[in-house]
Design goal:
mainly alpha, signal, two-stranded antiparallel ribbon, single chain, Lipoprotein, two-stranded antiparallel sheet
Length: 258
């Protein structure tokens, strides 16, 4: 689904979300994982994928490409993953998230809440925007992205892919369906085109109802070939950057200024 979920806490609400690292759609022209070409892959293996991330980081350090390089802690984790067949350990995944949150605290903000889908963290939350505070909120966004890029985003991306898109499909829909198949949640004949068609039909159906809100999981029943409320299905969607735009997965509120 392509609609946004807005958790409303009064005033204008910003939904903040970053799900991209050097290889995950943050402006690098060298690798764009979100193309719609069927069957294309980001890399031939998780190990090659991690090496690509490290190579791009080195180019950023050398000034050969736009973007801030990763922090040393994140590089060390990825180098360790490279020696482990391209797999990030759970301990390193947790450490990367802890380092990111501490970075935010060190910049003078309250620690951001963590949204979980199954056993996976999502960098997504809502925040009430205050009129007249645009400059402060823009600084927050800049600091948040800087901490994410330095400490966590690429580790998070590798960890999500190794569990939910180990075949490294560029097209998110193919990643979702591959994950659904591996969790035995759809028939073997179910394809990415089937998923896209169901998703598009449900968007049209829901928009025609003019409900002015995100649907509940119960309201998606019968529209998809899988149970949208199944935690493994939710993991497949979230870890492949498909919107979790149902009421049960609305982002938590963050009050960064206390």
């Amino acid at each position: 689904m392509m609609r946004e979920v807005f958790a409303r806490f009064g005033g204008i609400v910003m939904v903040m979300c970053f799900a991209c690292g050097l290889l995950a759609g943050c402006g690098s022209n060298e690798a764009d994982p979100d193309t719609g070409v069927e069957g294309q892959r980001i890399a031939s293996s998780m190990q090659d994928y991690v090496q690509m991330v490290l190579d791009l980081d080195q180019k950023a350090r050398n000034g050969q490409m736009h973007g801030a390089p990763m922090g040393d802690r994140q590089v060390t984790i990825l180098e360790r993953a490279l020696e482990n067949g391209g797999r990030v350990s759970r301990a390193d995944y947790e450490q990367a998230w802890a380092s990111y949150r501490q970075c935010i605290v060190n910049k003078g903000y309250a620690a951001p809440p963590i949204m979980k889908v199954g056993e996976f963290y999502q960098a997504r939350w809502s925040m009430a925007s205050v009129e007249g505070q645009e400059a402060r909120e823009e600084k927050l966004r800049e600091d948040d992205m800087a901490c994410g890029m330095a400490e966590m985003l690429n580790v998070n991306e590798v960890y999500q892919r190794q569990h939910s898109n180990p075949n490294l499909y560029r097209n998110p829909s193919e990643g979702v369906v591959d994950c659904l198949h591996r969790n035995n949640l759809v028939k073997t004949s179910y394809t990415a085109k089937d998923y896209d068609a169901e998703d598009r039909r449900f968007d049209e159906y829901w928009n025609d109802r003019r409900m002015g809100r995100a649907p509940t999981i119960a309201e998606t029943h019968g529209h998809f070939s899988f149970d949208y409320g199944d935690v493994d299905a939710a993991m497949c969607l979230a870890n492949n950057h498909e919107a979790m735009d149902v009421q049960e997965y609305k982002p938590p509120e963050w009050k960064p200024f206390g």
